[in-house]
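To the wet lab folks,

You asked to see what we're planning to order before we commit. Fair enough. Below is the target structure as tokens, and below that is the sequence we designed to fit it. If anything looks off to you, flag it before the synthesis order goes out.
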């Protein structure tokens, strides 16, 4: 059996009953037991000579956390090994689609972005994890991610980490330009633009902030903070919200930032992946970023007390703006070669040391018990940011929209200066059509 995403964006499964039955992919069936030495009883203690393959996404998990996972797994599961394979984000849905459907090529554990998880949970590509849910944290896990990881009342995707966005800014440049910390989104917009004009250090090509259309979650966070939204469920149908007045107002503000607040509106995808370099080089004074970026900002800037953090403000003073609740889930593939050993690896991943290592890297750990491990200034605001974050529409078709670059293309039209209302109407119609397919 196999599952595909058709060119029209519809999820389909070959050799699956018309009633929508899940894929007939067994994580612990007799064929798997014969091929890998897995114990039919679910006991991993008698398995030896096997390798658990884990797919993590680029930029997600630090080398220190990976080393801990590999060494701890080998120590606790004598005679077996674990190997981590880092995957690029670009094109990952297609690669996962192909690999997860193959009994010979599928990894055992796979990280998926939380906007992509339902693509696979909905078609049986993952095995249920209800039997170890409590072992991995139970009610202490990030519940919004837990909810997004369920399908048909079964738990398929565990929350690996959350990465809601805040603001990193050069407070020394703000002070030099006599610009106070902004308290509202409108003040934030003016502050960024005025900082770019002031250019306190006289840096050639200086911009008030880094903002690029290809950084869709950063732009999306500003849209959410201004009251904008992509779509909402109305009965059994999704209704686009890009043409709502609140979204239009938010998009107009973003377009002004693209035009007057940054020189990076049309930056390339490759450069955006390391956008903290512009901050480190003194070419921008503001970043909208997740907590892990703080560890990539030059330590000299932190040591000199030149950097500060704040939540993205809302439309009124004292209000924290809603931001995109970025992050990832981790799942056991239905075609895993070593399902019981993979569950042992999950116990290491959700163990105290691995969770704390993620916190030290700036992520909100999947198990909120260890949220206090988030170090530095961002750790002081992370709970507030996550509390005020929101998810994109929880439907497999959202992954199709994202995978087709609809979101990125939409923000690119805004960055190019095209009419906001016309663009919103065009892409809103496209989005509504995709979300209501299937």
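Sequence we intend to order:
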């Amino acid at each position: 059996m196999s599952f595909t995403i058709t060119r029209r964006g519809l999820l389909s499964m070959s050799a699956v009953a018309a009633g929508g039955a899940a894929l007939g992919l067994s994580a612990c069936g007799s064929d798997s037991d014969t091929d890998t030495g897995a114990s039919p009883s679910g006991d991993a203690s008698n398995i030896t000579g096997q390798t658990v393959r884990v797919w993590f996404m680029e930029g997600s998990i630090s080398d220190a956390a990976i080393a801990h996972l590999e060494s701890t797994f080998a120590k606790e599961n004598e005679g077996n090994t674990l190997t981590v394979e880092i995957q690029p984000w670009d094109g990952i849905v297609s690669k996962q689609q192909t690999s997860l459907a193959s009994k010979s090529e599928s990894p055992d554990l796979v990280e998926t972005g939380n906007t992509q998880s339902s693509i696979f949970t909905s078609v049986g590509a993952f095995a249920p994890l209800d039997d170890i849910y409590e072992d991995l944290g139970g009610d202490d896990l990030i519940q919004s991610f837990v909810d997004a990881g369920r399908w048909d009342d079964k738990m398929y995707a565990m929350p690996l980490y959350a990465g809601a966005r805040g603001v990193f800014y050069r407070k020394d440049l703000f002070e030099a330009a006599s610009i106070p910390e902004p308290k509202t989104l409108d003040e934030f917009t003016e502050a960024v633009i005025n900082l770019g004009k002031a250019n306190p250090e006289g840096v050639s090509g200086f911009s008030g902030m880094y903002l690029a259309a290809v950084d869709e979650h950063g732009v999306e966070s500003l849209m959410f903070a201004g009251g904008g939204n992509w779509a909402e469920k109305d009965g059994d149908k999704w209704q686009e919200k890009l043409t709502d007045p609140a979204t239009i107002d938010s998009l107009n503000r973003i377009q002004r930032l693209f035009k007057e607040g940054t020189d990076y509106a049309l930056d390339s995808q490759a450069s955006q992946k390391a956008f903290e370099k512009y901050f480190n080089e003194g070419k921008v004074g503001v970043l909208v970023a997740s907590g892990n970026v703080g560890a990539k900002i030059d330590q000299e800037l932190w040591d000199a007390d030149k950097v500060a953090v704040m939540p993205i403000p809302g439309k009124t003073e004292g209000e924290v703006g809603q931001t995109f609740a970025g992050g990832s889930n981790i799942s056991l593939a239905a075609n895993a070669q070593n399902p019981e050993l993979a569950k042992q690896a999950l116990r290491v991943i959700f163990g105290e040391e691995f969770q704390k290592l993620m916190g030290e890297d700036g992520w909100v750990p999947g198990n909120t018990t260890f949220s206090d491990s988030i170090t530095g200034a961002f750790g002081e605001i992370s709970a507030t940011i996550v509390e005020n974050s929101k998810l994109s529409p929880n439907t497999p078709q959202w992954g199709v929209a994202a995978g087709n670059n609809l979101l990125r293309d939409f923000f690119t039209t805004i960055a190019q200066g095209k009419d906001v209302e016309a663009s919103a109407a065009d892409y809103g119609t496209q989005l509504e059509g995709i979300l209501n397919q299937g």
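Structural context that might help your review: Residues 119 and 396 are 4 Å apart (CA to CA). DSSP finds 18 helices and 18 strands in the chain.

Thanks,
Computational group
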